[in-house]
Amino acid sequence: MNRLFIILYFMAAAWPAQGQTVSKKPVIVITDLYHPYQDPGDNLDLIMGYALPQVDLKAIILDITDAFRKDTADHPTLWKDPRGPREAGVVPVSQLNYIFDRQIPYAIGPLTWMRSPTDAMRDSGILQQGIELFLHTLEQSSVPVEVISFGSARVLAVAFNRNPELLRKKIARIHISAGMAAPDFKLGKDQGANMIPGGEWNVALDLYAFIRIMGSGLPIALYPCAGVDGGFTKDVNNTYWRMPSLSFLKNVDPRLQRYIDYAFTKKQRVDFLRAMDMAEPFVPDTADYPRPFHFWETDIWKNVAGLQLVRTKDSGYLFRDKVLSGEGVVSSSLIPIKLNMRKDGRFTFHQTTGPSSIYIYYRADPDLEERALQQAYPHLLTSFKTKL
User: Which residues of 124-151 are buried (b: 16+ CB within 10 A; e: fewer)?
Assistant: First the structure.
């Protein structure tokens, strides 16, 4: 572990929370955020935790996997990503703390996958800090916490193996972005997805972790990333949508522009905080930016923040916490289910009217929701203000 990471962790973990209100929902984010990025959506997604007024962000756990830190990834079942090296997303988290004038503690979790579903991973050395920060944050919270998991379920599963009663007592709900919602274990058109555990990236990052947490009995909202034909197609039970153009970024807060540009152009400046203050020409939709831009996380933040995707009277779309007279809603919901999980991480499910600890995401019209998000998301991001 780089010494700088250790120093930054202890600095961040020691900072007290500021500017919190009791009306906000306490949230812990577990994210596979890297720098330079692997999925640039992780960098955009984390802005929500800082900027949404309904969210009281308590901690960030960086859930990364050693195979993807290397020049060319050597994960046994996932893409041999040749775009490395990269490291845990300490830089973007530090930048967000800086530009929002926040003091959110963060730490890095174990880098390797669990050896069994009951593995407590007590021999992971300095990388205990991610597990310890997660458990400590739950212990210190006076009310149950919403937990958002983007990436593997490793931190959740290990924490459950160490202290299941604490998680049962202090977690309001776990919102998990993972899995393939495919009826009858049907294989689809994405041959790569067909070959990996669970048919989906986040499950394959740590198969034992996903199986463990889904069978834990904890309150879970499951937001599958993939449908039957993979993670880059829309389905009624997955959350994928895409944005054709990022030109709207020219209208976001200047510091957010610098944060996004720093991430998307994979800058490696030593003065990564000072870079948030330096005015540089901003070129929207530069060739360096990913396009189209792929999203899986938006519906989770919408639900955690208690927002609605509203169709306004002039047939535009916005995120709002209430619907006005004459307006409509692009509906989506969480449906209680019974889950049938296989050892390879794939599952089937059916809706139930009986008691259930697991709910699954559902949207009746994925194409309509995508069109609505393509309008509402830019409005939301351009409404956020940093501490200038």
Answer: beebbbbbebbbebbeebeebbbbbbbb
Report helix, strand or coil for 149: strand
Region at 121 (left for phi over 0; alpha for psi -120 to 50; beta for the rest)? left
pLDDT computed for residue 20 by the predictor: 41
Q: Residue 189: helix, strand or coil by DSSP?
A: coil
CA distance 107 to 29: 11
What are the residues whose beta carbons fall under 8 Å from the beta carbon of 2, sequence distance 6 or more? 87
Specify the length of the chain in residues. 388
Residue 39 one-letter amino acid: D
| Each residue's pLDDT tens digit, 341-372 | 999 999 999 999 989 999 999 999 999 999 99
Do residues 179 and 196 touch, judged by C-beta distance below 8 A? no
Nearest to 8 by CA among 201, 307, 272, 187: 272
* SS3 category, 360: strand
Displacement of CA 327 from its chain's centroid (Å):
30
Measured CA to CA, the distance from residue 200 to residue 171 in angstroms comes to 25
DSSP string for residues in 293-339: EEESSHHHHHHHHT-EEEE-TTS-EEEESS--TT-EE--EEEEEEEE
Predicted confidence (pLDDT) per residue in 198-248, tens digit: 999 999 999 999 999 999 999 999 999 999 999 999 999 999 999 999 989
Rounded CA-CA distance 125/242 in Å is 39
Q: Which residues contact 104 (CB under 8 A, 6 or more apart)?
A: 12, 15, 17, 49, 50, 57, 58, 59, 60, 93, 96, 97
- Secondary-structure percent of the chain, ordered helix, strand, coil, rounded to 5: 35, 20, 45
User: Tokens 């944005």 appear where?
Assistant: 243
HSE-CB for 306 with a 13 A CA cutoff: 11
Give pLDDT, residue 281: 67
Question: How far apart, in whole angstroms, are the C-alpha atoms of residue 225 and residue 41?
Answer: 13
274 Cβ partners below 8 Å, 6+ apart? none
